[in-house]
Write a structure and sequence with these properties.
heterodimer; A: 154 residues; alpha/beta; Rossmann fold; 5-stranded parallel sheet; B: Beta-Lactamase; Helix Hairpins; Beta-Lactamase; 6-stranded antiparallel sheet; 15 helices
């Protein structure tokens, strides 16, 4: 069963935040493989199997965790592309952000984000938040069945 | 009364015409029938006579061939008896006897009931075979029938003797005056008719009782005649030829007789006509009495009312149209009377008010003259520039303020086009505005520059209106040169401020993201360190770590509060009517839930205010949680929210607690950012809460202030401007 678990994609440019997030996920006993990318371009490369991810064979991830503020392409843009693509839009996307700015929140929900989490300063609160997210989206919530494109069923 | 006569006359005329036509028709018909009847009767009489004559002739001829007759005539000396027997059938009772005469005319035998009568008659009947003419002998009218007797034997074997010898004649006479004949005829054609017979070519005519004059008509052919007798009687007669004789029959009727039915009809018609006319006259009189009289009354009433007697009324008891008319007439008269009275009273009132108005008008003229003098004085006194300009682009009149401000004398100003004084850059706009004004517009706050005599320009703000029909423009201007400078300076300040605000916006956005991240890392890694080095750490190490965590967390809160305070000042207000009462109860419930001990809430009814609900909510969250916080050390914390009088322009709400209070000496520091009157060891907090409250209330146009005594509780007041009084 565990081997069947899909990957979780984490897009985060800050190494400290990556480490804390990974710690939080592990601490919550989430055992899915977690793929970390450092900006929006890489996140999109992963999802579309481009450049460094051209050889990727895994199915779409169970969950995408996006930092809002990233170099090159920000989280909002990645979210927009995911939700506009019929092959990707069923993937749950969660915004992880330091910001309480209302404009970002409104924008994200307009684009169809599945959850929006303001990273709390207190670490244990952060762990609780990640626990809820990872548990709910990666383990409990069964994503819609995969429909591979251009591939005969058999 | 003329109407009934007229109607009766009319009916009479119509009846006469109709009756005359009918009578004419009847008479014509009767006359036609009379003619037919006369002709038919004449023909019948003629036929009877013809038949009678033919029968006599035939009988006479038969007997003429009788041998006894022949023999006797051949020899009159023979026995006469057989001959007499043979001839007896010819002898008719009452008629003259039948004679046998020799060829020489000698009478040899006379047979008949009235022998000797024939001889008594004129014997001049010519001995010519056939019927004779009608003859008169004394009073007796008669005719003769002579038949020749010869010796011609009866035809035997087709042979006939060549010679015949005349032996003599049978002579018969018949009178036409027999009374019974006339009676019979009269029965046939009716009384009053004249039946006559006579010779066709004149001579004797008889009515079968006596000789009469021949009828005045051509008697040789059938025909009808109408004529007047010498005495004037009208008569209708018809003549008919009697076949086989030289006679003609005549039937004559008096007209009266023929037209008798018409006369009877006439009499009846006259009677009917008279009755009809009488009835018509009575009927018309009745109708006239019923309609004409009330109308006459109405007409008379109209004349009466026209002469001014409006109180006059007519009798209107009837229920028909006339009654309605009379009723309507009365109603109209009442209204006319009322209107008349109303009119008179109005005329009186008008006359009175007119004379009043006349007096008032004189007063008004005096007032106007005064007002005009006053206006002139104001015109001269005004600090504003006042002017009247014509359609030719020149001033007609300017007040002294012009000279004071621009230096030009009134003569200079009115002698040149005002456009010459307008700043070249403003001339196009000014011309457009002047054209709009001339078209009847009004100018409010039009601004342009005028050149002063010293060459400098002054900004003038205009308010103008045109008196279209006069082609004049009335305008007032004010020197706004200083205002203009201030406004320009203000505009540049505003744009600088906007730039700063934008910078601030992006600054706070960065702060919210970038300043929080390191704090999170500090706290996060401190937590990881605590986990990984747990066993190896001394108690002091743990305390250090917790202090690090606590400080970083506090700083995170400071940043959050500071950001929200900054946003509060910039966010647009989303104002509407807010149910303050409901809002405060909700916040109290929420805040009270987290309170360390039970709080007694005294929440009084609060009015609705106009404001941004989310911001007002934030203000009350701050105030109520402060109240809870600073009274939490009391054994029975009490918090009261109520309205405090206020004024007509504002609503004042206060929040009072029985907490630790404050020293009024520091009251001005309460609402400052990061200003605290208690150490954070005593009470937690960032020092932003009350600053937020003040900012929120200020943004709603209100004020905040506080009362407090150390250890005696604190009261925080805020005022809300009432709607409509808000600037």
């Amino acid at each position: 069963m565990i081997a069947d678990l899909k990957q979780i994609l984490l897009a985060e440019d800050n190494a400290n935040d990556v480490e804390l997030t990974l710690n939080a996920l592990r601490g919550n006993h989430i055992v899915n493989e977690i793929v970390v990318v450092r900006d929006g371009v890489e996140a999109l490369d992963y999802l579309y199997r481009r450049n460094t991810f051209a050889q990727r064979t895994e199915t779409n991830p169970a969950l995408v965790l996006l930092d809002l503020k990233m170099p090159k392409v920000d989280g909002i843009e990645v979210l927009r592309q995911i939700k506009e693509d019929s092959a990707l839009k069923s993937i749950p996307v969660v915004m992880l952000t330091s910001s309480r700015e209302e404009q970002d929140l409104v924008r994200s929900y307009e684009l169809g984000v599945n959850a929006y989490v303001v990273k709390p300063v207190a670490f244990h609160e952060f762990i609780d938040a990640v626990k809820l997210l990872g548990g709910f989206w990666a383990v409990i919530n069964e994503p819609p069945p995969q429909r591979p494109q251009g591939q005969a069923r058999g | 009364m003329r109407l009934p006569l007229l109607m009766s006359g009319l009916i009479a005329v119509v009846l006469v015409v109709v009756f005359w036509a009918i009578n004419r028709q009847i008479e014509t018909t009767l006359l036609r029938d009379g003619r037919d009847r006369a002709q038919a009767a004449a023909d019948q009489i003629g036929a009877m006579l013809a038949q009678s004559a033919a029968r006599g002739t035939n009988e006479s001829r038969r007997l003429a061939r009788d041998p006894a007759v022949r023999r006797y005539l051949s020899d009159p000396s023979t026995e006469a008896a057989p001959t007499r027997d043979v001839l007896t059938p010819l002898a008719v009772a009452g008629q003259p006897s039948v004679e046998l005469r020799t060829a020489e005319g000698v009478r040899v035998l006379e047979i008949g009931p009235a022998r000797g009568v024939a001889a008594a008659l004129d014997a001049t009947v010519p001995l010519r075979p056939g019927l004779s003419a009608i003859q008169l002998s004394g009073e007796t009218v008669f005719y003769g029938l002579v038949t020749e007797v010869d010796d011609t034997p009866p035809p035997i074997g087709g042979q006939r003797e060549a010679a015949t010898r005349r032996l003599g004649y049978i002579v018969i006479r018949r009178t036409l005056t027999a009374v019974q004949t006339a009676d019979t005829l009269n029965r046939l054609v009716g009384n009053g008719a004249l039946v006559a017979v006579g010779h066709q070519t004149g001579g004797i005519w008889t009515n079968f009782s006596k000789a009469i004059p021949p009828p005045p008509i051509d008697r040789t052919r059938n025909g009808i005649l109408e004529y007047r007798t010498a005495t004037g009687d009208r008569r209708l007669g018809a003549v008919s030829m009697v076949a086989g004789t030289p006679w003609a029959a005549w039937i004559e009727f008096p007209f009266d007789r023929i037209l008798a039915p018409a006369r009877a009809m006439q009499r009846r018609m006259v009677a009917i006509g008279l009755v009809a006319i009488g009835l018509a006259a009575v009927l018309v009189s009745m109708i006239s009495a019923r309609i004409t009289t009330p109308l006459h009354d109405l007409t008379a009433a109209t004349v009466t009312i026209a002469s001014g007697e409006y109180a006059h009324r007519v009798h209107a008891a009837r229920r028909d149209e006339i009654g309605q008319l009379a009723g309507a007439f009365n109603a109209m008269t009442e209204r006319v009377e009322a209107a008349q009275q109303d009119l008179e009273s109005r005329v009186r009132e008008r006359t009175a008010s007119l004379s009043e108005a006349g007096a008032a008008l004189q007063e008004r003229v005096a007032e106007l003259n005064l007002a005009r003098a006053e206006l002139d004085r104001f015109f001269s006194l005004s600090l504003d520039l006042l002017c009247i300009a014509g359609a030719d682009g020149r001033f007609r009149r300017v007040n002294p303020a012009w000279q004071e401000m621009l230096g030009w004398s009134p003569e200079e100003l009115t002698s040149m086009p005002y456009m010459a004084l307008v700043h070249p850059d403003d001339r196009v706009r000014t011309a457009t505005e002047a054209a709009a004004l001339a078209a009847g517009g009004t100018t409010v706050r039009f601004e342009n520059r005028y050149r002063a005599k010293d060459g400098s320009y002054r900004w003038l703000s205009w308010k103008s209106a045109s008196a279209g029909n006069l082609g004049l423009v009335y305008a007032a201007a004010r020197d706004v040169t200083e205002e203009k400078r201030t406004t320009e300076a203000l505009a540049s300040s505003v744009s600088e401020l906007n730039v700063i605000n934008d910078e601030l916006e992006s600054f706070s956005y960065s702060v919210s993201h970038d300043l929080r991240a390191p704090l999170r890392h500090i706290v996060g890694f401190a937590a990881l360190l605590e986990q990984s080095a747990d066993e190896r750490m001394l108690d002091d190490d743990r305390r250090y770590l917790r202090t690090i965590t606590k400080s970083a967390t506090h700083m995170g809160r400071l940043i959050d509060d500071l950001l929200s305070f900054s946003r509060m000042g910039r966010a647009a207000l989303n104002q509407r009517t807010v149910n303050l009462d409901a809002l405060v109860r909700e916040v109290a419930l929420e805040v009270g839930r987290d309170a360390p001990r039970d709080v007694t809430w005294n929440l009084h009814p609060l009015p609705n205010v106009h404001g941004d609900p989310s911001l007002l909510r934030l203000a009350f969250v701050n105030l109520l949680s402060n109240a809870v916080k600073y009274s939490s050390s009391r054994p029975r914390p009490e918090i009261e929210v109520n309205v405090d009088g206020g004024g007509p322009d504002e609503t004042v709400v206060y929040v009072r607690d029985n907490g630790v209070g404050f020293d009024m000496a520091y009251a001005d520091k309460l609402f400052g950012v990061f200003q605290r009157l208690h150490s954070s060891d005593e009470f937690e907090g960032t020092g932003i809460g009350l600053a937020n409250v003040r900012r929120i209330i200020h943004r709603h146009g209100g004020r905040v202030w506080a009362d407090g005594i150390v250890d005696g509780g604190a009261t925080f007041y805020m005022s809300f401007p009432k709607r409509g009084t808000q600037p």
